[in-house]
Structures are given as structure tokens and as C-alpha cells.
Amino acid sequence: MPELPEVETTARGIAPHVTGHTVQEVVVRHWQLRWPVPANLPELLKGGVIEQVRRRAKYLLLEFPHGTLILHLGMSGSLQLVDTGTAARKHDHLDLQLDTGKSLRLTDPRRFGAALWTDEPAEQHPLLRALGPEPLTEEFSGERLFRSSRGRRVSVKTFIMDNKVVVGVGNIYANEALFLAGIRPGKAAGRISRPQYDLLAEQIKHVLAKAIAAGGTTLRDFLGSDGKPGYFKQQLFVYGRSGENCLQCETPLKTRRLGQRATVYCPTCQR
Predict the structure, then answer these.
(1) Residues 143-168: pLDDT tens digits?
(2) pLDDT tens column, 202-231
(3) Has residue 92 got a pLDDT over 60?
(4) Any catalytic annotation for residue 261?
(5) How far apart are CA 91 and CA 72, in angstroms?
């Protein structure tokens, strides 16, 4: 699943190619994604100028003078820029044809993504209204995590993956941040101390920023054949390494399921 760094990389990758340009036509090939694509979307977007591309949590926001196109990549989706007229493949669901001769194409094999419209401020949309702070802003801190966690029995990993607590900390980066902070993922959120949360917030910021930087080295790939940048060129300490030795202490890593997600941790380094 595309996580926050991948969505941020996507936003940065497409922005220079679409910002300030006019949508000439909208082609919708499949109207039923996670939610129905608005029936009047082609009329709403035709002739509109994309003023800004930005990200909120895992949502991509294409802002027009009269509203915002809200895109979500779902479990396996991607955006790419193709020459207008390029033959569509089976899972190419939506094209925004631009005045540049390029089209912004949404591909989503599992159709768990979304293309929605709002003419209100994007943050007031029901999908965005209750979201927590962005992890790479000053609004997010260890103090905020500590305050929000008091009395919570849920595991700390599940806690930091709750978008109402902080947005965009998906499974990969939750595993990594908890390892770097030395915190056992299954420990109750309410039992984590303020100093531990300070360190955890710092490591969440670190792993996300590092992943964004890694993806940012391949932005040119949005003009390539598959539209997918090289997301995971950074070193991962625990995610995907179940049964291998810890890179710090060489203890075999263990795996358990938390919130129906595989969780890999070091029983020695994480307490």
C-alpha cells in the first residue's frame, strides 16, 4: 500500500507538470472505485486550471479555483503522466487530459482508490475532517502523543497508526520508528513514558523524512513507463526481515500480529 512518503513523492513528482495547466478533457473508464466517481466530474473539471497540488495524510489534493479533486491511491494505485492518446490498459481508470499534451492517469488494479470532488475547503470534507496532525509539522510532538495516550490500553503500534492521533504512519514506518525508539510494539500506549514518546515522535519524523528523500531521487520516473518511483531505497531495520538477525544486536527478529498487521521487532533492543 502506498504510505505517506510515497504519496508525498507522488505529489512532488506530478506538481511541476500539472500546476498552472488547464484540464481539457476528463476520461472516466470505471466509475466505481472505492466510492463512486461523481457523475459530473468531467463537467466540473473541464476548462479548470490546477492551481496547486498538495497532500493531506494519504490523500492527494488537486486544487482548482472552484474546488478540489481528492485522489487516493488505495492499496495498489499510482499516478503517472502519459502522452494524451496513449492506449489505456485494463486498470487505467481516469485520465485528466491537459493542455500540455500530457494526461494525468490514475491506475488502480484493486479499485480501492478514490476520485472525489468538493467545492468546500478540502479539510472540511468528511474524509479529512477528523484527521490528526501531519507528522512532519511542529503540531506533532512527543508531548501530544503522551497526552493522547493516557489511559489507552491499545498497543502503541496500533495507537500511532491511528489517523486521528497522527496521520500517515503506516505499517512499514510504525515498525521502523518503534525499533529506532527501542519500544516494544505490543506495549500498551498508556504505559509509554513522556521521554519515550519524545524519542518516538523524533524517530517517526526521521524515518518518514528519510523515506521521502529516498523517493525524491526518482521523481523523473513519473514520466516513465509505470509512473512508480523507487520508494524503498532506504535501509529497513525490521520491516520485511522476520526471522533474520537484528542489524544492531544480531538477535533473531520476532513477528507477531497487531491490528491484523504483521509486526516485526527485536526482543532485545525493544523493551
Answers:
(1) 999 999 999 999 999 999 999 999 99
(2) 999 999 999 888 774 444 445 444 445 444
(3) yes
(4) yes
(5) 15
**Residues 101 and 8 both lie in one domain:** yes
Q: Is 241 helix (H, G, I), strand (E, B) or coil?
A: coil
- Would you state the pLDDT for residue 6? 86
Q: Are 62 and 150 found together in one domain?
A: no
Residues 74/34, Cβ–Cβ less than 8 Å: yes
Q: Which of 34, 46, 152, 261 is catalytic?
A: 261
Residue 25 annotated among the catalytic residues of the structure:
no
- Give me the pLDDT at residue 234, please: 57
Q: Single out the residue of 126, 124, 144 nearest to residue 134, CA to CA.
A: 144
Of the listed 55, 58, 102, 184, which one is catalytic?
A: 58
pTM over 0.85: yes
* Range scoring the smallest mean pLDDT among 3-17, 168-182, 196-210: 3-17
* CB-CB contact of 178 with 200 (8 Å): yes
223 phi, psi to nearest 5 deg: -105, 10
Task: Tell me which of 90, 124, 158 is where a domain ends.
Answer: 124
| Mean of pLDDT over the chain | 92
Q: Where are the beta strands (DSSP E) in 19-130?
A: 23-28, 52-56, 59-64, 67-72, 78-83, 92-98, 102-107, 114-118
Range of the domain at 83: 4-124
Per the structure, how many domains does the chain have? 2
Q: Are residues 115 and 207 in the same domain?
A: no
For 218, residues 6+ apart whose C-beta sits below 8 A from its C-beta are: 229, 230, 233
Q: Is 135 among the catalytic positions?
A: no
* Residue 102 annotated in active site: no
Domain assignment present for 209: yes
